[in-house]
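Q: Hi! First time doing this. I have a protein sequence and I read that you can turn it into a structure. Is that right? Here it is:
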Amino acid sequence: MIVLFVNDVPLSVQLAQIERGRLTTAIERDAFAIGGQVTPLAGLVDPNRTREIIAVLDDYSRRSDGTVVVIDKGGYLIASNDPTTTVGDDYVGRPEIATAMLGTPTSGTRSSTTLGGELVYVAVPVLTGSYVLGVVRITYPKSVIDARVNNYLRGIFFTAGISVAMAVIVALLFARFVTRPLDDLRRTTEKFSDGDLNANAQESGPPETRKLASSFNLMAKRLGDMIDQQRSFAGDASHQLRSPLTALRLRLEQASDLVESDPHEARNHLDEAQSETERLSRLVEQLLQLARAEGTTLPLEDLEISELMT
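A: Yes, that's right. Below is the predicted 3D structure, encoded as structure tokens:
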């Protein structure tokens, strides 16, 4: 929000200046157009002159709500679309009229005692060659121009707001598209860490997330297989060791019972116990070799079947 504020405030000021300049240029264009239409009439001394100029101003009034006054070379009002004015009113004291009388178009803003507020004006000379026949001035209350500028800015910012809202929605949807598979993967890892070795992550979402889920599933499968192998190995080892251990215990018990009454037979039982011990040792060694071999890839060798069968 701070970034938007820092960027939008200077932008709004710049856009407001551009829009005011555009409106002022449009008013100047209208003033020159009216000046071109009244030029043939401004220098005439004809009872119909005022009526023809008013017809031009009425046509402008149908297209715009600006106030237009046409001043003769003496600074007096010839015609206006403002019903509160009177033909012959003196406009010499207006600074924009005095400037335009010198042949220089002018525009700007000034206070108006008539309106009781700020006035935006454009005044252009009515020329025939280099000779000034009069002045055309178009004015607007500054509040009208400000309202147009504000409406323009509201339209721009409304469009910008929609664009930002759409961008936020798209960003949230995209974030959800990315984060939901990660949440699923997190829940799956929690299940796996709690002992559920059959937990599998859904391979969905962006390609990177799918690859991560696939790698996790492969890792989980390998770990599950290794744990199953360890369990199987522990069961097999206990089963294989039970018989020789039982036989060894029996031989030792029998030797212990006969050590005083029949030393020779006790000796035989001890020899048998020794054999069981050696058998047990070989069995343990084989189990260790089997444990080391599990999970490894044995090298392949080419063998002749005939050699194996001989």
